[in-house]
Amino acid sequence: MLMRLFSTLFYLIQQWLLDKQDLIRERRHDLSILTEEEYQKIFIFFASVIQTLGEQLKLRQQVIATATVYFKRFYARNSLKCIDPLLLAPTCIFLASKVEEFGVISNSRLITTCQTVIKNKFNYAYLQEFPYRTNHILECEFYLLENLDCCLIVYQPYRPLLQFIQDMGHEEQLLTLAWRVVNDSLRTDVCLLYPPYQIAIGALQIACVILQKDHKTWFAELNVDIEKIQEIARYIMNLFDLWKTYDEKKEIQGLLNKMPKPKPAPQR
Question: What is the pTM (predicted TM-score) of this model?
């Protein structure tokens, strides 16, 4: 029953499930300037910016996750030179808060929060203050909507994860760790490549290994493509390996300087 439900949802989200080769093709301009690892580090950084903005604005994790997926979907089809990620990040938060029915964040509160977060939390990356104002966010939102083809409902792995945990026999420790792994997965490409229920299973598998929980029978009874689950687990484990050597505070300013940038708007 669970798998039938998730298969139906899979049909609904297929428009935004991309192929690895599609991603490589769309990123070819950026990857002619950045290495794949540098590109990933930049996206890890901006996922952290979105997470921190969301937490400062007291948003639910679902809203933050949706904003992160919007961000990744936009750049899955556009170069980094199209829009400054520092502008797109709060724009994704602004749109996601409305779509997820959290309520509209006031323009002044959003800009003030961006200024505070960049100044206090990310001053190792940006020496100057947050440069954008309300009109930039509103203009960027229209461009974002157009690029998302107005497909704004994002199915996240959190709901299937809760249902899987319930099916396994509720284990709070396993849920807590798997939930964190799902959050970490937003720093990878898995949300662009795999449906949410498969990401939830991949996160559960990693959590079981870390906690040394033996649920092999439960996993064996699932009617899923186990190779896809292993691929998801590898993406997330590769992220964990990258984190071991990635010193963001030392590296990110150089990466942001190297990153392709939008041309400045003409002066009026």
Answer: 0.91
